[in-house]
């Protein structure tokens, strides 16, 4: 098998970009189909000359797409509320799957997909956590985990802060994304578990505020939030999430250890150009996540395809996403209830009733 025949599901911002990456930056991938049930996305795809040039077939029915002869893999870039059902359907048809985070906003539903995947040992089923494929974050991981450059890591401070969206797109999207911690902090949580070697959560706190998007109140959501996670063994993580930044996409991570500290992108930059004038010295910032992580998405695509072609383990298994979601949901619950979410030493969530009975 020289190339993997793959279909991309969902033609929103991410789906369109994944198609472009698979066509132009993933030599051993062959995009044979795209699928969407959104009328405006269908109209856009029908007029796309590149799709016509590469012979990409357009579907408005997911189940029919799965029946396309020769199709081997599916890249799921739809809204979170259908990730699990589409992943299950693809596996049932014998297709390899890369599903964007999160697998579901419901932990039990996500676990059912992970359990189902065990019944298909020949399939590559992967969670889409793009920051694990970014060159800077990978270099930090080597320094922290392999070289011991900062001693024993015990604290992570990480943030995902998006440019303020005035188009209305974000508000529509936010109603289906599970809340600010599930949506914005999920990559930061994943990095934390990576750098702290799968530390076991002990307690989660969350607070938030509405400053720019009052419409989110109807979804019981906020546009800025801070979450703190205490891990068993004295490790700590601090997460800052924002959807209202004026200057651009501001994503950074700082890991502190017993012998030092590693920082990634604390001062975000579009490039290495600095303008010096009467105002001082200034530089531009990437407007959104794609400009910051475009090459990471390409690396992710190539490694997924390589796992299929050479029967290698996928670089980010579905189980990783479940661990991340466990913490994300605990932070979200803490934000909603104003109460601390707690875990036992095995990492199992302690329900509120048990806490009230003095078992926390």
From TrEMBL:
InterPro entries: Gfo/Idh/MocA-like_OxRdtase_N, GFO_IDH_MocA-like_dom, NAD(P)-bd_dom_sf. GO terms for biological process: NADPH regeneration. The keyword Iron does not apply. Belongs to the Gfo/Idh/MocA family. Residues 141-262 form the GFO/IDH/MocA-like oxidoreductase domain. The keyword Amino-acid biosynthesis does not apply. One of its GO terms (cellular component) is cytoplasm. Keywords: Oxidoreductase. Residues 5-120 form the Gfo/Idh/MocA-like oxidoreductase N-terminal domain. Pfam families: GFO_IDH_MocA (PF01408), GFO_IDH_MocA_C3 (PF22725). It comes from the Eukaryota. One of its GO terms (molecular function) is oxidoreductase activity. This is Gfo/Idh/MocA-like oxidoreductase N-terminal domain-containing protein.
């Amino acid at each position: 098998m020289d190339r993997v025949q793959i279909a991309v599901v969902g033609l929103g911002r991410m789906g369109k970009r994944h198609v472009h990456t698979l066509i132009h930056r993933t030599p051993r991938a062959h995009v044979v189909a795209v699928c969407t049930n959104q009328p405006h996305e269908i109209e856009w795809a029908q007029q796309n000359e590149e799709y016509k040039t590469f012979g990409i077939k357009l579907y408005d029915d997911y189940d029919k797409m799965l029946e396309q002869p020769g199709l081997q893999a599916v890249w799921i870039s739809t809204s979170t509320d259908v990730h699990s059902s589409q992943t299950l359907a693809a596996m049932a048809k014998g297709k390899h799957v890369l599903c964007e985070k999160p697998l579901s906003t419901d932990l039990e539903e996500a676990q059912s997909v992970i359990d189902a995947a065990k019944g298909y040992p020949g399939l590559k089923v992967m969670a889409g956590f793009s920051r694990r494929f970014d060159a800077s974050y990978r270099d930090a991981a080597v320094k922290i985990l392999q070289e011991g450059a900062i001693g024993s890591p015990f604290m992570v401070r990480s943030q995902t802060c998006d440019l303020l969206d005035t188009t209305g797109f974000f508000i529509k999207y936010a109603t289906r994304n599970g809340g600010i911690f599930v949506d914005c902090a999920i990559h930061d949580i994943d990095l934390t578990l990576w750098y702290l070697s799968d530390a076991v959560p002990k307690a989660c706190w969350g607070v938030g505020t509405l400053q720019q998007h009052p419409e989110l109140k109807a979804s019981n959501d906020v546009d800025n939030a801070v979450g703190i996670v205490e891990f068993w063994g004295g490790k700590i993580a601090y997460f800052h999430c924002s959807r209202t930044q004026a200057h651009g996409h501001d994503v950074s991570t700082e890991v502190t250890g017993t012998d030092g500290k590693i920082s990634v992108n604390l001062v975000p930059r579009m490039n290495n150009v600095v303008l010096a004038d009467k105002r001082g010295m200034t530089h531009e910032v990437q407007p959104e996540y794609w400009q910051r992580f475009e090459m990471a998405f390409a690396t992710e695509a190539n490694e997924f395809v390589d796992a299929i072609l050479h029967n290698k383990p996928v670089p980010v298994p579905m189980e990783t996403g479940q661990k991340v979601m466990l913490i994300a949901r605990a932070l979200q619950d803490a934000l909603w209830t104003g109460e601390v979410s707690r875990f036992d030493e095995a990492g199992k969530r302690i329900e509120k009733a048990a806490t009230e009975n003095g078992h926390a």
